[in-house]
Write a structure and sequence with these properties.
By secondary structure, the chain is α+β, with helices and mostly antiparallel strands. It is 52% helix and 15% strand. Strands 10-22-21-20-11-18-19 form a seven-stranded mixed beta sheet, with helices on both faces.
Length: 677
């Protein structure tokens, strides 16, 4: 069995065990209700003495109603925690000691029923997460060599295998398309509502070397659904390392990052529960000594106060909201690693954005081509395409993609001996002649100067923010090619939406030169654009931004921006699907390459915090009301009924997050298609 299947199936087994336990708990609660009714009927309707059938029924209620409560209380007490279950048991045992068997029985019945219903309600949010695990198919149709495809268990699929995906079937592994055209529904993994058109790569060997930079039109992910066409994909990750398995694992472990509010509630409960016990003892003594109540009446009052002060709703208020919020985010293609990031995001005062691939498409395009006076555009293009086709650099990919179609038939050249000059460009050979394609620094270091016409064109293009490469063949300058990474159409709208959400400072940080950074910054509308930054410089800028505005978030691609994202309070990774580094280094991952999800995540965070506040206020108010009501004569049965009812209300209020802005994740943000890569 593969690691993915181990993760998925073992998690499924845990999930099934939890749901099985919840089902038993519900049946036990129902049984306690039946036996409690039997006890009440036999004692009060039939007039039978307590020591007989009524007591037998009440003892059965104690067993069925207290079975799971005792297990939980013992577990928490052994860990040094006195929680709600412990308080309920003390109250039920106390009621029995003074002969109030009916009151103790109804307490355990209502408490067990309320707890079982809470588990049932919370399972709605859990199922939204657990449904991800069911997306992985158990087998794959693998073609090896010239043989016909053979169906094998998905755990036997290895990197490099060719998998055939039939129409309307699920993709078993991450990979890229090498044959066939189809539309793939990626909504379960990336949250994209419209199927994404897939097409084969031009060169499978080259694609295998640059998997992380392949466009979405070529890549597929495990668990997505193929459309009407037949696809053949080359596997790039085993099922253990697929995007789906990472998402399932991370979402299931999301509760490990407790929210600030939950951390406070946990600290509060460590003092509150012992305080309640002290208050109960004081109530007992005051009732007996100051008001001269008989011990049974004073003890009953103390037990009722104990139940009234139990913080059931308070304990579940934050976890229920966090679980629902994380589940809602996951359905929208936003992976949030727990309550900490979910709650903190809504308080962010400033955001820093990487430029390339975040505010821009990360897919440079040829934007200008200027040839020298003593050469032709055809010669310049042929030279460029011949040299750059040997390189895997993104700029080389853009040049070949955009200029190769402009070559005349028979004009193609062949280059060899490619060598990269780090930070400068590349050198190759065409027909025995040395060819250089690089930036201005490459030629300045050789003390070479551009012809006047090319120098003027270079200055003009540079001022517009283009990245420029100069082409020289032998002793002759052939011309200049300019490329530029276009900003996303929605970038400016997203930034305006964030300003509307009271994110006061928006900064762009980039490794590109300052002219490029300024040009993009003006176009998208950031407050500050900072260019020419190395990864360590980005960290310095994040630290500086955090000193003035906190908390802050950093939005990047999760790879070269990982150090900066780690130093921010919240790291948000763009287009994390298929990138293990992005999934593991960020606090929040946008599974699709969709910047418009950032404002949605901020709004969801604020809605979650708002519901947590509502739940906490309601929980504390009801506890205060019940404590007061017990002194005015409210009996223990009514207290438990209101108590458990308030807990269910808190859970239901939290579950409203599952429907938060359903179908409105983009909130009016327009998108354009990504440039072909």
């Amino acid at each position: 069995m593969s690691s993915t299947e181990t993760v998925v199936r073992s998690s499924d087994e845990t999930h099934e065990h939890a749901h099985g336990s919840a089902r038993w708990e519900l049946w036990f609660a129902i049984a306690s209700g039946v036996t409690y009714a039997g006890g009440m009927i036999s004692e009060y309707a039939l007039g039978l003495p307590l020591v007989g059938w009524p007591l037998a029924f009440f003892l059965a209620t104690y067993f069925f109603g207290g079975f799971f409560t005792i297990r939980t209380a013992i577990s928490s007490t052994l860990r040094g925690k006195f929680e709600v279950d412990f308080l309920m048991l003390v109250a039920a045992i106390g009621a029995a000691l003074i002969g109030r068997w009916a009151e103790g029985a109804v307490l355990l019945f209502l408490f067990s029923l309320g707890h079982a219903l809470e588990e049932y309600a919370l399972s709605r949010a859990s199922k939204s997460i657990e449904a991800l695990a069911e997306l992985a198919p158990r087998s794959a149709l693998v073609r090896r060599g010239a043989n016909e495809p053979v169906e094998v268990p998905v755990e036997e699929v290895v990197v490099g295998d060719i998998v055939v995906i039939r129409p309307n079937s699920r993709v078993p592994s991450d990979g890229f398309v090498i044959a066939g055209v189809s539309a793939v529904d990626q909504s379960a993994v990336t949250g994209e509502s419209i199927p994404v058109e897939k097409e084969p790569v031009a060169d499978a060997e080259r694609a295998m070397r640059m998997v992380d930079t392949l466009p979405s039109a070529n890549r597929v992910f495990a668990g997505t659904v193929n459309g009407s066409g037949v696809l053949e994909i080359k596997v790039t990750a085993t099922s253990a390392d697929s995007t789906l398995s990472k998402v399932v694992e991370l979402v299931r472990n999301a509760d490990q990052a407790a929210s600030p509010t939950q951390q406070f509630i946990d600290r509060f409960q460590r003092w509150y529960v012992p305080g309640v016990i002290v208050g109960v003892v004081v109530t007992l003594l005051v009732a007996m000594l100051a008001f001269s109540q008989p011990f049974p009446d004073a003890f009953y009052l103390a037990m009722t106060v104990l139940v009234a002060a139990s913080p059931c709703a308070l304990a579940i208020a934050t976890p229920a909201a966090v679980l629902a919020g994380v589940a809602r985010a996951a359905r929208a293609g936003v992976l949030v690693k727990g309550g900490g990031p979910l709650e903190t995001l809504g308080r962010v005062k400033a955001m820093a954005f990487d430029k390339t691939g975040t505010l821009t498409w990360g897919a440079p395009r040829v934007t200008s081509l200027v040839h020298a006076d003593d050469t032709t555009e055809g010669d310049l293009i042929a030279t460029l395409v011949a040299v750059e086709s040997l390189s895997d650099h993104p700029l080389a990919t853009a040049i070949v993609r955009d200029l190769a179609p402009r070559l005349a038939d028979g004009a193609q050249l062949s280059a060899d001996d490619l060598n990269a000059v780090i930070g400068r460009g590349v050198i190759a050979t065409i027909n025995g002649q040395r060819v250089e394609v690089g930036n201005l620094r490459m030629y300045e270091e050789q003390q070479l100067r551009l012809p006047a016409a090319l120098e003027d064109a270079y200055q003009t293009a540079r001022d517009s923010g283009q990245t420029l490469m100069i082409v020289r063949r032998g002793d002759t300058f052939l011309g200049i090619v300019g490329v530029m990474d276009a900003s996303r159409a929605e970038s400016a709208q997203v930034l305006r939406a964030l300003r509307g959400a009271n994110v006061g400072k928006l900064v762009m940080i980039s490794g590109d030169n300052q002219r490029v950074a300024d040009a993009v910054g003006r176009e998208v509308g950031v407050d500050t654009a900072i260019g020419e930054l190395l990864p360590e410089d980005k960290v310095t800028e994040i630290i500086s931004l955090a000193e003035a505005h906190r908390p802050i978030a950093m939005v990047g691609d999760g790879v070269n921006d990982a150090p900066a994202m780690a130093r921010a309070d919240i790291g948000i990774a763009m287009g994390a699907a298929g990138s293990t580094v992005a999934l593991e280094t960020c606090d929040i991952a946008l599974m699709s390459d969709d910047l418009g999800r950032v404002p949605f995540a901020v709004r969801l965070s604020r809605a979650t915090s708002r519901i947590i506040r509502q739940n906490l206020i309601a929980s504390l108010a009801i506890v205060a009301f019940l404590i007061l009501a017990t002194f005015l004569g409210l009996n223990i049965g009514a207290v438990v009924l209101i108590h458990e009812g308030s807990t269910l209300i808190v859970v239901v209020n939290a579950l409203r997050l599952l429907g938060f802005e359903k179908g409105k994740e983009h909130a009016g943000i327009d998108h354009e298609d990504k440039p072909a890569a």
